[in-house]
């Protein structure tokens, strides 16, 4: 034991680990930070053997009154208690109540600035009571709640939630049916914003309705939180349970309607020619116009006062939305996936052309293809993109998207880019969270971040000519190095997040791109990500289920990654402090070449430092015969001369690095050789495991180096490039050059 200790002490100065080790938690397992596995959710991240979830079926009839901009509806909900728990009451969401007078969203609204001159719209929408002040009577009016026998039920409206007190306990395995009648006024989105509402076109006197959160909806009851009855105040979106929908939508008879699910009476509500085109489009891989622009323009002129009813059915969806207008052009095509053939379609007014007829349905198709490759084949029968001004919002099988040309029909590359990526993003939400049904009210990043990651993959693969540069590590560095009092960890409720865009969208997406492209590699990442998607499709995953599945399916310990990227506001800033260059001395003449030669025997404290700037040439190390005690109890020995010969022509570079940003990171170097060739070196993040503030790495190379650059293209999200190069100089990424050119 004494000899072994002496050997360690002698070797210590030349080991490629940092000294003066400081302990911290960046490489500790997440452990108690994640919930304890159980029979519902396993340690592997998969659903457990006793996993359960509730079900809610809806039969809904609504009428849209164009003259008053009012929705009147009735619904019958059949709720299935598939939990092991008896329930004495039910919770429903009344999201329209956020627009009611005196709502929490109104009372807690804050203005970001109040200058001596402000736009009138800003004053009303953002300063005066959070957009609820334009003389708008918002919120649900609940007319009745009755049981299956038509008897009144006892209920309580608690802000944006409604509690139905059950007369008898709903036992496990039982179901209950009840009905609700209600009405509410539709908000003008131009005046007060909103995730749904209507847009009015002054030129022709028509409106375009994008309708959602339009009916009382069952809240989620699950094994993690019980009832998810957190109030809706704006940023936190929705937690919903799956079910089947039978919906009848009554509108003026010159309206065209797009909705969740498939229309059941297309022959009745379309003209003969339109119905023929519709049937053709369902089977064709070529874009087919069901309602042409000429028909839509003609339709705008007459404003019918008669009504007709469109009927839709949708199975195993968590929500329902629809869009309606007499202004709609409608085109679509079938998309051939490996096991399904969904219908991609678009609804848009003439104000969207020529951009929308050219790009919308194509973007729907491209999204379905790539997302299906990375997760599972799109299981629903259709996916719909609807054009409306200044909105991007998603619901099962239907989404509402911005991107409008100028009045003369011209549009910039920027407009095309914005329109394309918002369609990709919102269509992509069919996967996250419409099918992989995470809790948006609690974890915005689980749908927005994962979806933004795949959005970027679609954009890079299908739209390389568009100047898209979002959701990658290079694009998030500005946010990550910003003041920490302006940031929150990704694992923060969306209502408490200061900057939702980078926090819930860009940063988690950049993290996943980093994980896929640099740390795990595409093949291993894609296999693990697909495992998560397939395990949790049509179920309710939590962050722990995602974290655990990614590790379980890959055999890669990623706790350090989740801890740093998702639980802290640390950033990547690795400093290349110094690089020492050594070669093996072949004779005394080599040792005399040292400008600052070490003195003393191996292992003793050096009185002078070796050369720290390799541009001045190497320092030489003398290799001596191995002392006898190094062999310990072994009866054989190494060949000292053979070892010396093996490394005689090698170039040794000892790199000292500091972690200035706090976020541990892999190391990615580009080595530039004197002969003009380059080579990349990747070192896993575990090199920081002993000391997360400072580390050293010895590179043994075949050629002499002229420059060593850390993270040259910014793919590790390093925030300060000025300390990435040795010998010291300014470095730029391709993204920097792209920005400098103004492209």
UniProtKB/TrEMBL annotation:
Entry keywords, A to Z: Aminopeptidase, Hydrolase, Protease, Signal
Signal peptide from the UniProt entry: 1-18
Superkingdom of the source species: Bacteria
Ranges where the record places region Disordered: 593-617, 719-743
GO MF terms, alphabetically ordered: metalloaminopeptidase activity; peptide binding; zinc ion binding
Gene Ontology CC annotation, any one: extracellular space
Gene3D superfamilies referenced in this protein's UniProt entry, alphabetically: Neutral Protease Domain 2
Compositionally biased spans, kind Basic and acidic residues: 593-602, 727-743
EC assignment: 3.4.11.-
InterPro entries the UniProt entry points to: Peptidase_M1_aminopeptidases, Peptidase_M1_dom, Peptidase_M4/M1_CTD_sf
Name under which the protein is recorded: M1 family metallopeptidase
Source organism of the structure: Marivirga salinarum
